[in-house]
Structures
1.
Amino acid sequence: MDIALALGGGGVRGVAHIGVLRTLEEHQFNVKAIAGTSAGGLVGAVYAAGFSTEQIEKVVKELDQNRSFSRKPDDGPSLLGLGSLAAKLTDLLADKTFDELKIPFAATAVSLYSGKEIILNKGRVLDAVLATIAIPGVFPSQEIGGRVLIDGGVMDPVPVQVARWMRPDLPVVAVILHKMPTDHVQDEIEIPIPISAPASILETINKLRPVQAFQIFSRSIEVSSKHMTELAMQLYKPEVIIAPPVGHLGILQNVDIDELIQVGMRATEETLNQIEAEANWMKKMQRKVKRRINLEPCPDYWAEVEK
């Protein structure tokens, strides 16, 4: 059964996407198109390039979470860099172009100066990934096609409409990463980046004004993204929503990779019947008829960018 995916952002919570993809594979769902934003763009690009979920999991586990966000000398203005993460992405994607991907894929970004949402589906995939994960002010912005681009989640946290634009005949399965566990109690906000140090030192660092300012900034991004996601789900109405309960995790904190993958798998398993119902032939025919009657062009605030 064929489906299209819209993979949302959420920083390191994007590891849960691996579990989603693995469960869909195990139950013989065929992913025919992927639209991804931020972390969803990163995981989606690597998966679309032909890497298995086992290979992606191995790569994630090999990353040093304390060095993933180190800066490089040529990084533009930003609080953090992409360090070993960018190096690993370069190893995986190299100069691969969108035309060379195994699965049709598009990432989204936002033009910093025009404010337009940009669909990235041409040129080098690596450039698109670095743009879609460029959290404004936190990671370096990327210049593609004469535009300065930042994280697509600023405008569109879960690119449902892009997935639907790519394959209007297929059900869109949206994966959102803001749901809170039912038993979670909000603790005091911790240092928003991975730092290995004794508790006494971490406590001292936590009291520094720049760190506290970064905590507030990180939290404000999360609040905004959560509400934008909820509005987008109501407005664009994906056929199925998968919502792993990972919203309690900071977007840049150290995480238990195995547990996050399992959370993604369990959340997907809960929606399997719904996905199957939406992917059956009758629903597919209904979508085709609706598309012919109500053919809508790609919205004019989207643009394709070529390297």
Note: The CA atoms of residues 106 and 121 lie 5 Å apart.
2.
Amino acid sequence: MLGITKIFGAVTALDRVDLEVSQGAIHAIVGENGAGKTTLMRILYGALQPDQGTIEVEGKAVRFGSSREAIASGVGMVSQHYGIIPELTCLQNLVLGAEGGLILRNRSAEARAKSLATQMGFEFEWQAEAATLSPAGAQKLEILKLLWREARVMILDEPTAMLSPADANALFESLDRLAAGGATIILVTHRLPEVLEHCQRVMVLRNGKRIAEKAVAETTGGDLAQLIVGGALERSEESSPFSPGSPLLEVSNLSVKGDRGELALKGVEFGLRSGEILGIAGVDGSGQRELFETIAGLKKPIEGSIVMLGNDARGLSTANRIAHGLRLIPEDRHAQGVVENWSLDENSALGLQRLPPFAKGGRVDGRARHQMATQIANRFNTRHGGLNLPMSSLSGGNQQRFVAARSLCLDPKLLLAFQPARGLDIKGTQQVYDGIREVCRLGSAALVVSFDLDELLEQCDRVVAMNHGRLYEPPASLAKDRDAIGRLMVGAQ
């Protein structure tokens, strides 16, 4: 890619960017949210057209007018925003658009699907509706689409954002094998350890410009971090150890069924006090999702109790829990956190529209909403072209900044945060956790689910592990011991 320029209105998203990737390599592209990484990859994939610049793939000059043309030339992309159709089966989603004929031969298609999944270390119920997939499962299915279409150039945009450490390691083992077999892999990521461990070269974008390109063996995480942000990283001041206050959440003997009728939570018990950030670690599918949804009022327990902010939660709807001070950073911002074709202004009140200052005389106060939208966008420096623009105009990371900031407004008492730093750059991750810590030290409490154990160990006051629907807490002497918590995550106590 030579001299790629892309302009949106008054914003130059890409300014004469060059990118050269060797066959059989894993090449990383890093940068802050809004730096132009995804825009550059969407141009390579044919989803956007460059205003200037040229592209060559496998030595041939190309100009893709659509993603279909890119796919036909062996270029495939897995974006942060999944293209899964919930009503279709996993198999139908896999082959959609690449059926190979008028008739889908289910038996042979499923055999090939199983072979590809085994190659990547994935498992699926191929005849089950895709609606049953977790976000991590949907991500894996999107990756398999590249293999189904026999892509030779594979673009992966934040592929491990929703994967557990074990799944992420398995993915990179598979990517290493694919690269050794001649595949060309471009990895867009914010996780610098992934770059240093698995990639051969790395390019840094900042404000739409190529700042540097280096051999990974010749750089460090610290050097890359400084190139990404344009200077030394500002670290938040060390806060004093938290002093837990009164109980804000008490969960006792909680048992809950999953979507398929299985017992997803089995006698879970824990407490959360004001001032505390409690992290829940675990392999995806261990019960975190069901616990989150039950506390939020989206699932009903078959046994046990939840006392939230001094109230028996069994009689409270989700709206009532929010009115009492519950705030949410949902796992899937697109399905649960925003309405993409609504403006940022409209999205600022989503879920909070019944509360002042949004609510006025049974209606939403437009002026108050606009003021709140401004505060929400400013809190974590959400980059946007105007509060009247649709949420879809923002990059994934900037959408996450907005959703996280919204959860911290209107005096939160209890915060449920599922992957709060999903898709965020270094600075954004730090800002969001600093924001969570700030409201907790003022008397709130936060329950944080993340598949990144190192993130939890760094950011939380206490970390527990979930495994097969049960909750395990390490002994006090090993409270922040990575290996001890890792063993609890896989049931090796």
Note: The chain is about 35% helix and 25% strand.
3.
Amino acid sequence: MQYRAFLLAFAALLAAPAFAQKYVAHCGVDASEALRRINAARAAGHSCGWHRMPPAPPLHWNGSLQSAAAGHSRDMAQRNYFDHRSPEGRTVRDRVGRTGYKMKIVGENLAGGDAEVRGAIQGWLDSPAHCENMMDARFSEVGVACVGRRGSAWGTYWTMVLGRR
């Protein structure tokens, strides 16, 4: 009976407006869809602004890079900021290094406000600097994450981390 009372109290807490306002949710990134879209662009080559990027080898999904991406998206959503540097000055190199990933090179793309992975990736392709990062043949692995927070400046916070060991 105590367990049932706990569940009812917990359900009431979840339904409370204060909890809903602060709740940070995963946006439902489908790794296979993200990878398919990224690799389709890399296979075809892409014009990044005035710079034509040739076709590049496919990227492979990496859990450590995805973990670094998820951590940064979550931090931006929780603390309502949007930047490659955390308020303490931590960079993508710092975040990836903490996962144990032995990087030779690492890069990061951010996006905000997109409801689906399709929109975030298209936004990166439409931005010359982000596009060049995604099309860079030096990268061999990727992780993408999104976290949403109601009432925040961007609503959704996307992070793509690219790397090579």
Note: The helical segments are 2-15, 17-22, 31-44, 63-79, 92-97, 117-126, 128-135.
4.
Amino acid sequence: MKTVGRAPRADFIVDAALVSRLHCRITATADKLEVVDLKSTNGTFVNGKRVHKGHVADGDTLRVGRVELTVQKRIMAKG
């Protein structure tokens, strides 16, 4: 579980306009990431749709404030 926001205590710091101190929380599941808005002022968006709780998968766009993040699945090599 990781948080996104402007605050120094956020796991992923996004120092940008319209981003709340603790904007959203991201939790990894087996094949997706679950996103929960933490009562941010300007909302959390997945593929342009405002969500309070939702999932993002490979290729999806997560927007906090005016910052857009594209989710990419990373495959780790075994060995």
Note: The chain has no helices and nine strands.
